[in-house]
Specification:
The protein contains 20 helices and no strands. The protein has about 500 residues and is mainly alpha-helical.
């Protein structure tokens, strides 16, 4: 293992942020853009395709959520593929999956082949959710790894925003999502096919990216690794860095999912940390919290036609929140930001649950009306929740997943954690109708409890990784309050 002195010396080699590493990190994060775009684009098309294929509510819901199946599978296998063939080939494969899914979904002739194409796109999303944070963590200097790793979340929220915007523009030009646009093809089909453009850009950019130096060293390609470390990461003492990486890799000649096994609960403790980070990111309800956003706005006087504006405002808030996180993460640290985020989400979700306990439903109506001042409380709390999540748990989980795992298990462990995240995403989305059927107070109360549990989890178990070299993660042991200690 590297000594503390050596690790500390290496940490200060790259005192300036090399523009080249920013460039390749942005290029890798384009996968996150497609991640956000692909998972959001169906929102603008769902009503039109439901009418086109005469779908019931059950089959419509399955068509919408089918991509999540591919996401979990893609995340699960991306790690082993990245270990065997490299990070760049997996990016190219993901780009191809996005490209094929875009045209397949847009030209679908029935609901079942649409579902197939959405699952294929989900495979790309799952792969991108694993490979981008792993690659960025492996090329970024420790001093700047947090903000560069946060580019993944920024790209995701930008993808969501662009998907919403392109849906609105295409539907606006055509006069509706179900109306004919160009070449006799309906607007909702173009919503899917437009994704082929960023998919092609992602694939082309990936072909010109340097391979991860840690992958290259694991394959004994030291010349290429040296070049990447010097020209992109900014290491001045390349030989020392290579020696440290070699020491961190020498325990295992070949990485596999078996390397994750160990500990009292079947997996290494650090792998459980990654899985639980992923689960809590979803269990606070971020992906369903705004199912009732239209109701919230209507309860304070907005009409239904402004629902799209509501979604756009929310996505812009996500972008602003992520930029704030990028500015703070390498200054404040991961643990403190996560703790503040958990506390803020607990309070804001609790206030939403309280506000909806005063909701009134008129006879024969589905919408809920909140009397003053609870309508305002609910709206402020909902927006506060988005900001607390967007500045902390949204981007920082991806940062931590990219950096907490030792070199020899990073890609595989990240794949398992990301697969767990997608499974939790599906479970939360699928359970929300039942929870809201009991009552919105109950649903938001459940998410508030998970936010509170996330605070305890971070306080007790999550280590601080700010300014630590990836090679030092081999020495990471988890004790009380998430402190790290070197192996004895």
């Amino acid at each position: 293992m590297s000594t503390p002195d050596a690790a500390g010396a290496t940490a200060h080699h790259a005192t300036r942020l090399n523009p080249k590493v920013v460039g390749i990190s942005i290029a890798a994060a384009v996968g996150g853009f497609l991640f956000g775009f692909d998972t959001s684009v169906i929102n603008g098309a769902v009503n039109a395709l439901s009418e086109e294929f005469a779908l019931g509510s059950g089959l419509t819901g399955f068509a919408v959520s089918s991509a999540l199946i591919g996401c979990a599978v893609g995340a699960w296998f991306a790690g082993s593929l990245a270990n065997r063939h490299g990070r760049i080939p997996v990016m190219v494969i993901a780009a191809i999956l996005f490209f094929v899914s875009a045209f397949g979904s847009g030209l679908a002739f029935g609901v079942w082949d649409l579902i197939l194409w959405r699952v294929i796109g989900g495979l790309g999303v799952g792969a991108a959710s694993v490979i981008a944070p792993a690659y960025i963590a492996e090329v970024a200097p420790a001093k700047y790894r947090g903000r560069l790793g946060s580019l993944q979340q920024l790209a995701i929220v930008l993808g969501i925003f662009v998907a919403l915007l392109s849906n609105a523009l295409l539907a606006g030009v055509a006069g509706g999502a179900a109306e004919t646009l160009w070449f006799g093809v309906e607007a909702w089909r173009w919503m899917f096919m437009i994704e082929a453009v960023p998919a092609a850009v992602y694939g082309i950019m990936a072909l010109f990216l340097p391979e991860s130096p840690r992958y290259l060293i694991g394959r004994d390609d030291l010349d290429k690794a040296s070049k990447v470390l010097y020209e992109f990461t900014g290491e001045t003492d390349v030989n020392l860095k290579i020696t440290q990486i070699q020491h961190s890799l020498e325990r295992e000649s070949k990485e596999s999912l078996k390397d994750l096994l160990g500990g009292r609960f079947g997996l290494k403790p650090i792998v459980w940390i990654g899985i639980l980070l992923s689960l809590f990111q979803q269990l606070v309800g971020i992906n369903v919290i705004f199912y009732y956003s239209t109701t919230l706005w209507q309860s304070v006087g907005f009409d239904e036609s402004q629902a799209l504006l509501t979604s756009t405002i929310t996505s812009v808030m996500n972008i602003v929140a992520t930029i704030i996180a990028i500015l703070l993460v390498d200054r404040v640290g991961r643990r403190l930001m996560l703790l503040v985020g958990s506390a803020g989400m607990t309070v804001s979700l609790g206030m939403m649950a309280l506000a909806f306990s005063f909701g009134e439903t008129a006879a024969g109506a589905e919408s809920i009306t909140l009397p003053d001042p609870w309508a305002t409380v609910a709206l402020i709390s909902a927006n506060a929740f988005v900001m607390f999540f967007g500045t902390t748990w949204g981007p920082l989980v991806w940062v931590l997943l990219g950096e907490i795992f030792p070199n020899r298990i990073r890609a595989s462990a990240l794949a398992v954690a990301a697969a767990a995240q997608w499974a939790a995403n599906w479970a939360v989305s699928a359970s929300f109708p039942a929870l809201s059927g009991v009552g919105l107070t109950f649903a938001y109360g459940v998410y508030a409890v998970f936010a509170l549990l996330s605070f305890a989890f971070v306080f007790l178990r999550v280590p601080e990784t700010k300014d630590r070299e990836l090679e030092d993660m081999d020495d990471l042991q988890l004790g009380r309050h998430g402190q790290h200690a070197p192996e004895a």
